[in-house]
TrEMBL record:
NCBIfam families: PRK05753.1. It comes from Bradyrhizobium daqingense. The lineage of its organism: Bacteria, Pseudomonadati, Pseudomonadota, Alphaproteobacteria, Hyphomicrobiales. InterPro entries: GreA/GreB_C_sf, Rnk_N, Tscrpt_elong_fac_GreA/B_C, Tscrpt_elong_fac_GreA/B_fam. This is Regulator of nucleoside diphosphate kinase. GO terms for molecular function: DNA binding; kinase activity; RNA polymerase binding. GO terms for biological process: DNA-templated transcription elongation; regulation of DNA-templated transcription elongation. The keyword Transferase applies. It comes from the Bacteria.
C-alpha cells in the first residue's frame, strides 16, 4: 500500500489523487449545488472533491470508491475499521451501513483507491483521517 498523503511547506495537507466517472461527476456536482443552502460545509467539500477529480472510464476504476461501492476503511484516529456502502442521500440507512455522499465521510471517500488516505475537517472543526482498506461493487 502506498501512503499518498504529504504535507506542503505551509503545513497544508496535500489531498490524494482521486478518480470518478464523467456521469458521477455530473450527478455529484448537481447534488452539491442543489444542497449548498441546506448543507453548506459538506456540499462545498463534495463540490471541491468532484472538481479536483480526474475523469476516468468505469472499467479503469477497479478498487476505486464509487457510488454504490462497498468500502472498508479505517478511522486513523481511533484505529477502528468500518464497512459501508456509499449511496445517494435518498438511499442512506445508517442501520444498513448505507452512508450518504452528503456526509463528511461519504464526501471524503469518493474517488479514493485502496490504500489511499485522506484527511478532512469534521463539522466540529476537528481533523479526521481515513484510509481505504478495500473496495468492492
Amino acid at each position: 500500500m502506498r501512503k499518498l498523503e504529504a504535507e506542503s511547506q505551509q503545513g497544508q495537507t496535500i489531498l490524494p489523487p482521486i478518480k470518478i466517472t464523467e456521469d458521477e461527476s455530473r450527478r455529484l456536482s448537481s447534488l452539491a449545488n442543489s444542497t449548498m443552502d441546506l448543507f453548506p460545509r459538506v456540499a462545498q467539500f463534495l463540490a471541491r472533491e468532484v472538481e479536483r477529480a480526474t475523469i476516468a472510464q468505469a472499467d479503469d476504476l477497479r478498487g476505486v470508491v464509487r457510488m454504490g461501492s462497498k468500502v472498508s476503511y479505517r478511522d486513523d484516529g481511533s484505529g477502528a475499521s468500518r464497512e459501508i456502502v456509499l449511496v445517494y442521500p435518498h438511499e442512506a440507512n445508517i442501520e444498513l451501513n448505507r452512508i450518504s455522499i452528503l456526509t463528511p465521510v461519504g464526501a471524503a471517500l469518493i474517488g479514493l483507491s485502496e490504500g489511499q488516505r485522506i484527511e478532512f475537517e469534521t463539522p466540529d472543526k476537528r481533523t479526521r483521517g481515513l484510509t481505504v482498506l478495500a473496495v468492492s461493487e
